[in-house]
Amino acid sequence: MSSHRQETVRRLTAPDIAARKGGTPVVCLTAYTAPVAEILDEHCDLLLVGDSVGMVVHGLPNTVGVTLEMMILHGQAVMRGSRKAMVVVDMPFGSYEGSAEVAYANAARVMKETGCNAVKVEAGPAVAENIDYLVKRGIPVMGHVGLRPQAVMVDGGFRAKGKSNHERVRILEDARAAAEAGAFAVVVEGVAEGLAREITQAIEVPTIGIGASAGCDGQILVTDDMLGLFDWTPKFVRRYGDLRGEIAKSVAAYADDVRNRRFPGPAEIYFAKAG
Ligand code: KIV
Questions:
Q1: Catalytic annotation present for 189
Q2: Contacts of 204 (CB under 8 A, 6+ apart)
Q3: pLDDT at residue 159, rounded to an integer
Q4: Gap between the Cα atoms of 60 and 105, Å rounded
Q5: What residue's CA is closest to ligand 1, atom 2?
Q6: Does ligand 1 come within 6 angstroms of the Cβ of 49?
Q7: How is the chain split among helix, strand and coil, in percent rounded to 5?
Q8: Hey, where are the domains in the chain?
Q9: Ligand 1 within 6 A of 54 CB?
Q10: Mean pLDDT across the chain, nearest whole number?
Q11: Which is the catalytic residue, given 69, 113, 189, 198?
Q12: Do the Cβ atoms of 217 and 22 come closer than 8 Å?
């Protein structure tokens, strides 16, 4: 890849994504590594270095244990692998909720050390003023409402949200507050179509749904879920591939080769281009 080509490609930015409200749906996927980012970049408007990396890559039970250092390392990898998609890095649990100043110091560090285009925060009632603080100081922010994975301990686990009127009103308020505070887009996770449409109509920036119906302005999925890497897939996710089956088949073939001493030795073969 020549550096000239890199210079001539412009990455999508927060205003580009914000301008897609009500237009062509925004295509988003999660990415955690450079090679996967390179494949997704061609097809996606936005790559999210989600804190789901803790569960998907590091085997954690939820996202609460994810650290700023983990997000920075994966953010750097995704930036190296992509050229055109907007890259958003999740702020991990405990890095942005306590105060606006702490949120700013941590978000600025993520932006500087990864070169990413924006950060994402789970936008509960206490966070809107921190979003406002970040945006006013030059950090584009994406909000995240509905099922908030970092709040599973208080919200009662990974389940659909907004079923009761009380919860529905609260989620709508969270989305409004995030948008009014300056978020350029809001992820809406795990809510029914009626509420997704209500939020989409209520706010002026794009809603990006995950398990939230086509009533949103775009969709995001966890890439490894939709590629079929796990033996379990959330009900709302269409499996577009069977990566788990493909990997198992390839590894079985490899193991068979090794057990039957079918592996190359000479350097000429070792360095030959794989075909
Ligand atoms: O961390 C993540 O991957 C996310 C998406 C599920 C939206 O927040």
A1: yes
A2: 21, 179
A3: 81
A4: 26
A5: 50
A6: no
A7: 45, 15, 40
A8: 14-241
A9: no
A10: 93
A11: 189
A12: yes
The model's pTM: 0.93
Contact 51, 151 (CB under 8 A): no
Q: What tokens does 194 get?
A: 């009626």
What phi and psi, each to the nearest 5 degrees, are found at residue 220?
Answer: -130, 140
Structure letter (DSSP) for residue 266: S
Which of 27, 44, 51, 158 maximizes ligand 1 atoms within 8 Å of its Cβ, making it the mutation to test the pocket?
Answer: 51
CB of 222 sitting under 6 A from ligand 1: yes
pLDDT of residue 271: 66
Question: What is the DSSP code (8-state) at residue 62?
Answer: S
Residue type, 18: A
**Rounded distance, CA 187 to CA 194, Å?**
16
Options 3.40.30.10, 2.120.10.80, 3.20.20.60, 3.40.50.1010; which CATH number does 14-241 get? 3.20.20.60
Least Cα distance to 179 among 205, 215, 218 occurs for: 205
Spatial separation of the C-alpha atoms in residues 122 and 141, rounded to whole Å: 10
d(CA 98, CA 127): 9
Q: How far is the CA of 16 from the centre of ligand 1 (A)?
A: 21
Which residue matches tokens 């590629």?
227
Q: Tell me how far apart the alpha carbons of residues 28 and 16 are, in angstroms, rounded to a whole number.
A: 14
Question: Quick one: what percent of the chain has pLDDT higher than 90?
Answer: 86
Phi, psi of 87 (to 5 degrees): -110, 125
- Identify which of 177, 190, 186 has the alpha carbon closest to the alpha carbon of residue 205: 186
220 lines ligand 1 (CB under 6 A): yes
pLDDT per residue as tens digits for the range 8-42: 679 999 999 999 999 999 999 999 999 999 999 99
- Atom number of ligand 1 nearest to Cα 56: 3
